Batch of 3 targets.
Target 1
Amino acid sequence: MSDSQDTQRRIGVFICHCGGNISDYVEVEKVRQAAAGEPGVVTAKTTMFACSDAAQQEMTDAIRNEHLDGIVVASCSPKLHLFTFRAMADRAGLNPYRYVQANIREQCSWAHRGHVPEATVKAASIVRGGIAKAVASEPLATMRIDTKPRALVVGAGVAGLRAALAMADMGLTVYVAERSERPGGWAATFGRTFARDRSGAEMIEDLLRRVRERENITLFTGAELVGKSGSVGDFTAVLRVANGDEITLNVGAIVVATGFESYEPSEGEFGWGLPGVLTLPQYKQMLDEGRGLRGADGRPAKTVTFLYCVGSRQGEEVEGGHRYCSRYCCTAACHAAVHGAEQAPGLHQVHLFRDMRTYGKFETIYEDAQRAGSVFLRWDPEDPPVVSNDGGRLAVRVRDRLLGGEELEVPTDLLVLVTGMVPREHATLLNALKIPVGSDGFFNEIHPKLRPVETVANGVFIAGAAQGPKTIAESVASSLAAVSKTAAMLLKGYVDLEPFVAEVDEARCTWCGKCLDACPYKAIEQVTVDGRAVARIIPALCKGCGGCALPCAENAIDVKGYTDEQVLGAIDAMLEETA
Amino acid sequence: MATRVNLDLHDELKAFGGKDLDLCYNCGNCTAVCSLADDGGSFPRRIMHLLQVGAGERLRHSVEPWLCYYCGDCSTQCPRGANPAEAMMATRRYLISRYDWTGLSRRLYLSNAWNIAAVLLVIFSVLGIFGVAHGPVVLDHVALNTFAPVHWIEFADLLMGGVLSFFLLTNAARMAYWILGDQGVPRIPPSAFVKAVPEFVVNFATQKRWRRCGTQQGDATQNRRWLTHLILVSGYLTMFVLIVLFLKWFQTDTVYPIYNPQRFVGYYAAAALLYGTTAFAIGRWQKRDEIHKFSAGTDWMFLLLLFLTTVTGLGVNVFRLAGWPMATYVTYAFHLAIDAAWLIVQVPFGKWSHFLYRPFALYLVKVREMAEQAAREREEGVPAAA
């Protein structure tokens, strides 16, 4: 590159063999020679394993002895070792953001096995790009933000209440905002719950009593979260209460535990609307009330039929259908069958299921339901059961796959539609929180395995069935996971944020407002500098997405760590023709 | 017409002995291990499922329960402890009660009280008849034929045989009607009914199909059980022939020498019966084999009455040879009373009917196969290779 020919930078390049993972398909020595000739490069070496302690020591020594002000490690994906080498740079006294990782394994050697000359050319060009980026790099510093020792929990169901208690016991001040007038959520409406038959209502009663005992928990009912501003560690949350008043809270983090809705079948779906047809929560209530199981005619029910997967695992033929499995319903229906058999000995129970998913320890509940005299028949989504009500006689016709598709008729007094969980309608909340929902309508975590309760909004965590169908036990487990993430952050007293945020060149900015519209995180504010209106980035809110840089007509916005100079320089270097 | 799920019947089948059938989740392991499952791979799994949904109509048309010899492989391999073998047994009991049009069989199977009461009723009736209608009691020597004249006994035998045959054969006719009347059985050429007879005779005499059963437990166990059963059957059939065809020769006050067939054939039959009933009773007591792990009241009653009939029969012979007149007469009365109870309660209405239904089921299967073969030939227009 012509404009960096005369660079004064001192860059070190290290090419990794990765055992043979790279060197079997890339001639690393040729790559090293090519790198050594690049402007600004003062040292270029190969190493067997760059991530090994010895190699890291060698790099540390090189940084110190050769007074390097930038390094490139050409090895694996940064997903694997970015932080390893940043820490190494830091130990050696080099600003960690002047380290660049060039991926010549996943993006080169592994992808081009058996094509050594071509892979070698490509690796050299990837390394050149890395060098160009390192040459244009600037020292950056993480942003430290002081956190407020207060948390807001949205939703006072079992997950929200349990989270509030746990955080209060760690010494945090907790506010709980419940949209309805009555705290407790779904669990408060349940009698016996699986797996240990404990009453959901009693459990909630117990949680509420403990919540009331704690002075550092404030429970708002009839209160909806309508606004959120500020940044991680220092949010301003606005609650609107029943009389229209607004309450403003200053909190360091927000835990969203808004739960789920029960699926409401559409008219005529599996007989919905016919007398004697009810949903699982309705049947559960009938059981819990303990006043006997009665059919539509008011007489004691002799037969109860459960029809599974209503509103779950819907196929493409249902527009906007729920494709997912609600996972709690199989167990809940089997548990209801055990309960029903106890309450009405001799009760006949038929289960029309698609696949029985009483996973994990709940498998025994399926067996208990069998022992209690339940008959299980599997149906095929290609040919689903048909509910009829000829002459007031409720019956389900189902094709029996074990009898070669022969049609069976199940006369029944009650038909329980085993309905699943669907996401809540909460447009106001979504608008306030700006956290993403998945295609299923539930809140999305950052990583389903490794970061299961964090959202892309720093300081906003999700807990319980708001994230997707969960049992009570799973909801509480996830709520306590959210507590540990929240409390770890708030009790430490500060958070360090990556410095990759947008930056406005105030001299060039003319405040056209395009960046403000483009920012999904409300991280841009208008300020006046020397009498001119210009845009300014609020670093704590900025995610470094670059959305504002693109529409900027004056080219006044750059994202730190990914400046135009760095990115374009790297592209130019990679495309450079070599002999 | 859709099959109606009938859970009352499901519950009733549990009362017939299929008490664990709820546990079945239809994995099909039972069919996989069954050495006799060769009819499209649904035996005994299909029956388990029919029991679960209480498909009475379909069960009535099923022949499969009679093709199972209860080796128990399916029950030992069942991952759920659903006991398919016992469920098949329960189905046989249910089918016996369905074939029986009097409804008595159902009562006897479902109630031990009915079972015991019926047996006692017959025993006391026969003893009562003896009490009022016996011949002169000669006490200076044993004169059994004076006490119980053989032509009267013979008459009673034939009368009872006729009545029991009537019940049993009408039941068998219902069985045939249901199994062959199943939808899907093509028109049966009349000759098939005759051509299939050897199937009945061979299976009646040897239970040969049984020997293909139970390969999971090794041949020794199956052979032992098959042999014990064969010995018991041979003893029974011998005794049956002696009593029905040769009663005048068999029930006599004359003492023949030991080498006379009247003596040693009779002793063989008695020994075979004693051995068979004792061996099976011990088996049921020890619950060693899968087949003997679950014994219904009717199973015990069957063995008990057959054992007591044999013992009292031997007693009559011993007392007669010993020259004890009164003991001979009294034991004889008990012998007939117990035998009558056994026959009347068990032949048309109970477990003993399996001697007919099992080979008859194989006969019906053969008839059905011939009908299907004939239908294929009609369809193809040319006779298939024999």
Note: The first strand of chain B starts at residue 3 and ends at 4.
Target 2
Amino acid sequence: MDNKKLVETVAANLGRSTEDVSKLLEAFAGVLCARCSEMDSVQVPGFGTFEPKKRDERVMVQPSTGKRMLVPPKVVVGFKVSNVLKTKLK
Amino acid sequence: MAQATSSSKRVCELFLKDLFTTISQALIDGDSVKVKGVGTFKISRVKPRKSVNVKTGESMQITGYSKVIFTPDKALAQAVNQPFEQFETVMLDDAMTDERLAEIDQQHPSAITDAQQATDESPANAPKVHPEPAPEPETELMRQPVDEDEQSVTDDVDVPAAPLPSDLPEMQDAAPAPAPDALFDGVLPDGDAAGERPAEKKPAMKQPAMAKPVEEKKLHQPAPVKPAPEKPMPERKPMLVGRPIDGPSQPLPEPEEPEEVKVSRRFYRPEPRNAYTPTPEQIEEASRKTDRRWLWLLLSALAAVLVFWLIARGCSDSQVEEPEQEVVAADTITEAVADSLEKVKEKADAAKEKIELKTDKKSSESKAEAKPEPTKPKPENKPDKNGEVTDVVTSQIVLTTLSEKHYGSPWFWVYIYEENLKRGIINDPNNIRPGTRVVIPPAEKYGINPKDKASLKKAQYKSWEYLK
């Protein structure tokens, strides 16, 4: 299901226009992005938690050339599924 | 969110609730959901697997389940990773050591402080900085003594070289320059060389490195050719050898007035030094201690290279003579040698022979001939010209193959090995550098006869001994 279809489905469920819904979705993405950039986690009840995590630097060996590379540290967004959804998925 | 969209809280709540139930539903259906600006949610099925209960030791079955894989959207990932954005994946220099890092730190304190945002970042930054500045102090140190020596020696050399007008004068400069270093190198213990950092050898340093072994040869060389009139000969040899090394960097002038060339040479030499000068002087002061250390390391590394080189070339004295031909036009040399021949007439017979041989060679061989070919055979054969042959060891051709070829049985490789061990060409029969030119002794010398069983047995026994 891609973004467009998702927006359409949600719009149909709510009885609102797709434009409205996509706007709301964008706003949500903006909030999520802002919170995660501040290393703050975003919890969505019944769905899961978005949580930024710091990954340490590491040395990686390129399998093809055998050269060693130093991969810099970075922050990635992790997602943890809530128990509710987990049990549903089982 | 309500503020951002200027809509009521309730609308937002409703929207969120519906959004996530929709996503959940899609996921439950086994579908993946892509949300713009957030990421992709995917379902992956984990298979049931067997495991052991840690407490009881019973084997048990872990049931399979589905898990959600979330891949953040590019925009989101980038935004979140902003503090670390400036870092890139860097190639690691395997030769990097702590000392080296410390040196770099000294030289670039600013770069490090910039990188202090996260403590563990500095190593990430350092390698980036390293390749350019690190080698500077070393090369500089290496260079300066060489240059100074060169200039001081130049004058001395002029005198003896003067009688030979056909010589290429600029070579006189090139030759004596690295000599003191070579002496120094010879003194160094080779043991700790161990090829510590051969990878770090920059092209700039190769120049002196290559010149040195040649020079050291020269030190051995004069022995057979001692008599006074012979003097020009040993001198010229290293000179010409020096040429291929300097060749690329230096315009090749025709034989001209010595003064002119010398001047141009002096001008030229300092140039590379200037290229290195950008290193601030305070940095030099700060890292002087480390520099000295590096100098030693470097010298030992050079010694290692030297040793390898010696082994590779089979370390015959007369090697030095050979490269001559390739470099200088054949005619010039023949003339020069003829000149010196006249002078040297009263010299010992052996030495004379050598030169005669050389003249022959020179006239017959083109200057472009590759080094290894002319290198060994002539000088080696000269003393014992009686049927001694040389051959080259390659990755395919080893001692046994050579033995098979020359004696008719692979077992006689032992004698080839013995002969070359005596001459110091080979050390380890199982570890011969490809391209090494080995001497094949005449079969009679060791009583080699592939048809004679006793001779074969002896060889087999010997090879056993060596391989034990």
Note: Residues 146-372 of chain B form one domain.
Target 3
Amino acid sequence: MELTAEPQIAPPKSKTSSELKKRIWKNKLLYVMAIPGILFFILFKYVPMYGLVISLQDFKPYEGISGSDWVGFEHFKRLFTEPEFLNILTNTLILFGMNLIFFFPIPIILALMLNEVRIAIFKRLVQTLVYIPHFMSWVIIVSISYVMLTMDGGIINELIAKFGGEKVNFLLSPEWFRPMYIVQVIWREAGWGTIIYLAAIAAIDPGLYEAARIDGAGRFRQIWHITLPAIRSVIIVLLILKIGDVLELGFEHVYLLLNSMNRGVGEIIDTYVYTAGLQQGQFSYSTAIGFFKSFIGLILVMAANWLAKRMGEEGVY
Amino acid sequence: MKKKKSMLMLLSAMMIVTLGLSACSGNNGGNNEPSPAASNAGASEKPSEAPPEEEEPTEITIMLPLNIAETPPDTIKTELEKLTNTKLTYQFFPADTYEEKLNASFATGALPQVTYLKNQATFIRFKEAIRDNQFWEIGPYLGEFENLSKMKESILNNTKVDGKLYSLYIGRPLARQGLIYRKDWADNLGLSAPQTTEDLFAMAKAFTEDDPDKDGNDNTVGLADRNDLIYGAFKTLSSFFGTPNNFGVKDGQILPEFMFPEYIETMDYMKSLRDAGYMNQDFAATSKTDQVNLFQSGEAGLYIGSMQDVNSLYNNLVKNVPTAEVATHNKIVKPGGTFGIWAIPGYNNVVLFPKSAIKDEAELKKILAFFDKMMTPEVANLMYWGIEGTHYSVVEGQAKASDDSDKVEREVKGYKDSVIGEPETNGQLQGFHDLQARIDAEKFIIENEAAAIHDPTAPLDSVTFTEQGQELQKIITDATYQYMYGQLDKAGFEKAVETWKERGGQKIIDEFTAAYNASK
């Protein structure tokens, strides 16, 4: 049947469309498998986007979207003129930058190191130990840090005092907020992050290494010339995705670390949305902020993707 | 080979994409979907068999905050249904995130027939919605109910919105704040109960430096405080210094407490306590649990807050330090000052009746009838104390809670916090206490009433305060902590007050002042 359709003379446009149909038919199972995923995105990602319109309204919950008054860009205006806004944006971007610089390379390094370990049992042990923290919730991580860092008998401060140092107010000083944040992120996520890199490394053709060894390449040479180039595209993809998460710095984590003393450097867009939106019930305003945040995220992803393509990589789309 | 590799690469990339995306969806703080934790409904949904009665039991769904970790079992509910001829569905939500849940349910029109708020601050925020006619006005119906009409007029007035009553209140003593301290330590050091703020300071110093537990180690500290300027030590201390309660009247103007010099004095006092090391250094990041632990482990010797906390503090303290003794105390003044203590407006929470869930007057009356029954001794005792013989026993006409405090807390506490009115009006038994410190505390609480510092704005209204008050307060809260930690000086604090004024504080002052003058 398909074959009989083929030789028909048709304008090029309909030809391509029939070709498309054919291809879909050929891969029908793949498309069927994709249906749940597509449904998921429609239901949980696209339909809720309708709610974004409340950022242009003076949304009153009991009136609903249809009953609330339209106010145009009022909430965005308020956001951009809010004295705190610049501060919050800067905090968000700084934390993001730190995430990228200090956290992002660590799983790669860790994966390279694990890959070089010869004793399998030791490798597996280390691997398990470094990912365990990922399964602890932020509440636990932050509480453990609190217990260790408090000035009222926390082990770290006790040690500092024992060696004659001045106790450091880790929990309540603005200077320590960012280091504390990033160390906790590394502690919890670094091990988990290695999984993907290890998988990518495992896929490298061992023949390449053999050849390199015959040519007299040492371990570092092998890493530099074989392992890293081989996982380069995975790194780039992860980097782009990471950039898309710019403003996803872990609401829960930051919220738990915040207090009156470090709010100046610690308040990020997510926590601000939470206090303004959910706690104080300013739905429209917080939607506007969330909208703005996603918008920045989109721009950054596109920029990163463009950059990746210019550098001859594949990018994510 | 090559092909296989790139396929693998593609697969892993796809996996990453889905991982990344699902991670994104988990953290969308910005949208209004209720979080999974918030949408899990109360566990006590199983209706119990009501005995066959002539009248159909009224079905009522109730949403309320829960101050303990576990949802209570149906023990009390079953009895309650029998007594009131109802079929109740209790939706308990953790108190910590209750406001979030309230806002989300409200936004989606999902509030049940009976909605408890969380505290006065939530109530203030709901005023806008109340004015928008989202809740039943119940004032006109109260007279029809014998017991409901007993509720205290003065407190009802404090809960009115534009002169109309929409809510029933959960009554609480006006001022429960005071000092709880280690009596055995004070005796060891020859100290008596502090009379002035200076005595208190000296006590904190001695508790820190003079080895009050006589174990030869420097392992004690004076005051244990937490990250709460209101229910922690700060506000009570500020009363000792004579600071007004939230707002005060000065030169015919209503001004916020932090524009009074006494507020600064209090900050200075706390600052010197902290600088000298006579209190926990990290109090701005200390949770109530950690604060309580400091006291209960025998490390700290002073606790300023609700004096009624003394029972649980003592019970847990003696587990660690069997020889410990505690005492309560209230009258502390700054040298030359007169005693005053901040007071709440007589209630700590209210119940609202959403129109979205209650369709007509008849239904409302049936629900009010349930609350009317709650104001009878039989029902009030059941909800407040539990089942006689199981959770409490009557000693000298007072209720003595059972020794199995875990059981009582688990089974009764959830209902206890929802009883409307107060013992004088709902006839519930007064508590029987054998701990001297608690008996004193109850006496002090009555004394406190005479010295109560009231918030002059409680019956007044300011639109700006309703809308922005909380957000603006954050500026002051942060500045207060920063001042106490030495990051801001007096000029810096005053600058924060200026910021507060600029961003809407001035409007609050003007609106309250106008309302105050109009009410005179």
Note: Confidence is low (pLDDT under 50) at residues 1-7 of chain A.
